[in-house]
Amino acid sequence: MKPNRILLFLIFFFQLSYSQTVKYAPAWFGPNANPVPEFTDARIPAKTTISLMGDYYFGFGDKTTNMHYKIEIPLLPDRVSFKIWNTAFEHYEVTNEVSTARGMNGNLTGKASGDFYVQTRISLLKERKNAPAIILNSTLKTASGTNFKQRRYFDTPGYYFDVEFGKSFYTKSKFINQIRTVGNLGFLCWETSGSRQNDAPMYGAKLIVGNDKWKLDNTLSGYWGWMHTHANYGSNYGDAPLVCATKFTFLSGYMDYFAQYQYGMKDFPYHQIRLGISFPVEKLTPKYNP
Q1: Using one digit for the tens of pLDDT, what is the confidence trace for 51-102?
Q2: Which of 58, 185, 238, 244 could form a disulfide with 25 if both were Cys (CB 3.0 to 4.6 A apart)?
């Protein structure tokens, strides 16, 4: 074998060996690398809706601040929509212990930008008196996130499919006149290294209470990757995150204001505080003439 081929082989072997030591799991990356997917109240909006928010993650040796946006465009009002979201302007600071555990080579602070998520949402069943609304989501995650070496984002793509079930119940109370229950089931997949992929069932449940002026969401959700159950990877692989979140939304008529607190119960070592706004945009809503 020629010397230059030997050198190329050694470089490739070193990179492959190095990548195999990286745990492609939320427990060992920044909070936006592969978070537990959010799910909605099992409704598709009638108008294009834009959400802008700021996040602060803290605790467990990692402080992260970032901007986050979502845009949902109803291609058919209340029936089919196209949705895109992204985390931008991320700034992080970690402790020496976290840097060592993640293999960050002593880098304690920096910046990054996130992956893009593209989703198609289809209403399979309209909510009826004796039946829930059912929505199918199909989502693709790009590999465009930066700063893999500092463990902020994976350098691999992913995708997931999930189904949302939602049903509302109404009361005569003025304080809480609507109670909505939502369930979520799906399948999440992402590439790791060495052409391996991690597959994970997704699950979640949401309880929403409120009235025409406000609503309170309480959510428990997670996914269950297979690598932490495999003898070659071990129980500390960190690919089975479970989170709980409480979100309060003030409904002002046109613009909604919300605040959320999320806690990582397992394999997601973060507290999160999120503040944001959401509003419809009539001019960006496609015209539909049945």
Answers
A1: 999 999 999 999 999 999 999 999 998 899 999 999 989 999 999 999 999 9
A2: 238
**Which has the closest alpha carbon to 145: 99, 113, 185, 123?**
113
Look at the block and give the residue holding tokens 């976290």. 98
Q: Distances from the Cα of 216 to the Cαs of 157, 175, 181, 263, in angstroms?
A: 33, 12, 12, 16
Q: DSSP H helical segments within 26-149, as ranges?
A: 96-102
Could you give the CA distance from residue 275 to residue 264 in angstroms, rounded to a whole number?
18
Among the listed residues 47, 35, 257, 282, the one whose alpha carbon sits nearest the alpha carbon of residue 160: 35
State how far the alpha carbon of 193 is from the alpha carbons of 141, 189, 196, 238, in Å: 16, 13, 6, 16
Counted residue by residue, the chain has a size of 290
- If you write DSSP's letter for every residue of 240-269 in order, what string do you get? --EEEEEEEEEE-SS-EEEEEEEEEEES--
Q: How far apart, in whole angstroms, are the C-alpha atoms of residue 90 and residue 67?
A: 7
How far is 223 from 162, CA to CA, in rounded Å? 12
CATH number of 22-284: 2.40.160.40
Nearest Cα to 64, choosing from 15, 20, 27, 29? 29
Which amino acid appears at position 57 of this protein? Y
Question: CA nearest 184: which of 248, 245, 265, 128?
Answer: 245
Rounded to whole angstroms, the Cα distance separating 123 from 115 reads 26
DSSP 22-49: S--SGGGS-TTSSPPPP--SS---SS-E
d(CA 10, CA 151): 24
pTM: 0.90
Cα–Cα distance measured from residue 168 to residue 108, given in angstroms and rounded to the nearest whole number: 47
